[in-house]
Specification:
Blueprint (H helix, E strand, L loop, with lengths): L1 H13 L1 H37 L9 H45 L3 H4 L4 H14 L2 H27 L2 H49 L1 H6 L3 H53 L5 H13 L7 H6 L1 H18 L14 E8 L9 E8 L4 E5 L6 H8 L7 E6 L2 E2 L5 H7 E4 L8 E2 H6 L7 H10 L3 H7 L5 E2 L8 H13 L5 E5 L7 H14 L4 E5 L3 H6 L2 E7 L5 E9 L2 E2 L4 E4 L1
Parallel strand pairs: 3-10, 3-11, 6-9, 9-10
Antiparallel strand pairs: 1-2, 1-4, 4-5, 7-8, 11-12, 12-13, 12-14
Helix pairs in contact: 1-3, 1-12, 2-3, 2-6, 2-10, 3-5, 3-12, 5-7, 5-12, 6-7, 7-9, 7-12, 9-10, 16-18
């Protein structure tokens, strides 16, 4: 329950005024319904008694009838306002939560991000947030309004009818409904949670099947995958049936509670009327009010049926939001973006030895440095550390004159750009893909970036900036997609550009054109590349070799390049 309350506090903090007004209107709806039915019962009974006594001609029917109409119309208007305010406020608050979750996911540690499956993560995030709409709308606000309505009804019935009738009605509804709803929530929680998990699995598997249908058909697995998806959906349907059965049982229990309370109220009222303590018309108020009070508990059966689903979603959302709380960076600023790495050590998890051990490196503004070394020596890891995607275990990293951790996040991302081995291109036009880096870029600027990476002729041949890419950049070859990502990075005008194997998939001549275009486009930028090709190392001003030692992590050997010629290694920077 604490997870649900935490989510409700977030929603309330985001939309306090609208929710408070909606809750007040919800209470007004319940009170109007109780007053309407109680007044109607009194009116009918009093009019009948007046007729039997021969006083029908003098009985005032106008004011009670006007009050009945007022309550009926007022209840309708209050219900409309309550639905409008609470639903709008809930949707707006959930939108804020969804944005915060996306931000938290995007700022997760790199080791977490690389294990995420985009469609599955997005599906779970959206489904969890969608499940939370019931927290204010079907749980917290109805319970609060129902309890307040019961209290108001108790006071009025005590005043108009009798304390025994008020105690019976309010006590019967609160105690009986609490037992039934608690039992329903406990029984429905496991199948409700399983149903939500199965629903998310169904959506993920179905999306995977649609995206990979061509490959599945080629290998003859499409039918099997379809059967798997249907089996998951069948499991979801079975749990849904169980939840519906529990909900109907709770509805039956609440109906029986209302029937017993109404019958008891009628019996108590008749006894008091026979004793002359109250009039028959006042006794009717207690009976009809008890019928109206069913509205305070009946909607809660749906909330109890979905309690497991909402609880699981609230816990998951709360954990994700809590992980992101307290994150942030200072307002440090620097106009320089040269890189200095001092005695950095990094170990992954509980690995026996560090990936990098006491590494020192510097890249000056306008300089191009290539990192080489065997696979697994830590080239990509060093770039991730320099981009503040990973955090070193020891040592310091400076960008410009400031320690890396002191940079403001927004300014850091403007000054530092990392293009990893695998980058994402979304479906859309080539212009759309490029304008993700700079939405205000003109067409001339876009073409200039494409020229820098030797991609402009290819794009012109395909139809220009309006050429539409498919998912994951389909429509371009691997090398062309890679160059489009590089052009997008150039549009950010970074002062420190880090590239992980930037010319992968390109022939030597094209690779050299791209590298020279990068430097011409960013003449003052510091460029650090993780390289494995001779073309990349020959182009660099300086080459740093990462050597993997059996007993320790990687060490650095620095060598100088002049005019594309390798000089002998000068010295070992760290070992």
């Amino acid at each position: 329950m604490s997870a649900l309350l935490r989510i409700f506090r977030l929603i309330l903090a985001d939309q306090r005024t609208a929710l408070m007004r909606g809750a007040a209107l919800g209470l007004a709806v319940l009170l109007a319904g109780i007053a309407l039915l109680g007044l109607s019962g009194w009116f009918i009974t009093a009019a009948a008694a007046a007729g039997l006594a021969g006083m029908g001609a003098v009985f005032d029917v106008f004011r009670p009838a006007a009050m009945v109409r007022f309550l009926a119309l007022g209840r309708t208007a209050a219900r409309y306002g309550e639905r409008l305010l609470t639903h709008d406020a809930t949707l707006r608050a959930l939108t804020s939560i969804r944005v915060r979750l996306l931000r938290a996911t995007a700022s997760a540690p790199h080791d977490v991000l690389v294990r995420l499956r985009g469609p599955q993560t997005l599906n779970r995030l959206m489904a969890d947030v969608d499940a939370l709409d019931g927290v204010p709308l079907r749980l917290i606000l109805p319970i609060t309004a129902g309890l307040l309505a019961q209290m108001c009804a108790f006071v009025v019935l005590w005043w108009l009818v009798d304390l025994s009738v008020a105690l019976w009605i309010s006590g019967g509804f609160v105690a009986g409904s609490a037992v039934i709803l608690m039992c329903a929530g406990r029984l429905a929680a496991p199948p409700s949670g399983r149903e939500e998990a199965a629903a998310q699995a169904f959506r993920s598997r179905f999306i995977d099947m649609i995206r990979a249908r061509a490959d599945l058909a080629v290998y003859g697995r499409l039918a099997h995958q379809g059967e798997t998806v249907l089996a998951i959906d069948a499991k979801r349907q079975r749990d849904r049936v169980r939840v519906n059965r529990i909900e109907r049982g709770a509805g039956f229990g609440l109906s029986m509670t209302g029937t017993i309370v109404a019958a008891g109220a009628l019996g108590l009222g008749m006894g008091l009327a026979e004793a002359g303590t109250i009039t028959p018309a006042l006794a009717a108020i207690g009976f009809f009010a008890s019928l109206a009070l069913m509205e305070t508990v009946a909607p809660l059966r749906r909330a109890m049926a979905d309690l497991g689903r909402m609880t699981v979603a609230a816990r998951r959302v709360g954990e994700n939001l809590a992980a992101a709380e307290g994150e942030g960076f200072g307002d440090a600023r620097s106009d320089r973006a040269d890189l200095r790495i001092a005695n950095v050590t990094f170990r992954r998890g509980n690995a026996a030895r560090p990936v990098l051990d006491c590494i020192s490196l510097s890249v000056a503004a306008g300089e191009s440095v290539a990192i080489t070394g065997p696979s697994g020596s830590g080239k990509s890891t060093l770039l991730l550390l320099a981009a503040r995607i990973l955090t070193p275990d020891a040592g310091r990293i400076y960008v410009g004159s400031l320690p890396l951790q002191d940079w403001d996040e927004t300014r850091l991302r403007k000054a530092v750009m990392l293009v990893p081995q695998r980058s994402v291109l979304m479906a859309g036009t080539v212009g759309d893909a490029l304008r993700l880096a700079d939405p205000a870029a003109s067409e001339d600027e876009l073409w200039r970036a494409l020229e820098a990476v030797a991609l402009a002729p290819v794009i012109r041949a395909k139809g220009g900036l309006e050429f539409r890419l498919g998912p994951n950049g389909s429509g371009l070859s691997g090398g062309e997609a890679r160059r489009l990502v590089l052009a997008r990075a150039l549009l950010r005008q970074p002062k420190l550009l880090m590239l992980d194997e930037p010319t992968e998939g390109l022939d030597e001549a094209t690779a050299l054109k791209v590298l020279n275009g990068l430097r011409a486009y960013l003449p003052e930028a510091a460029i650090l590349t993780a390289s494995h090709r001779v073309t990349e190392t020959a182009w660099a001003d300086r080459v740093v070799a990462l050597d993997q030692q059996p007993s320790r992590g990687a060490s650095l050997t620095d060598s100088l390049h002049r005019s594309g010629q390798n000089a002998k290694p000068e010295k070992a920077v760290n070992s």
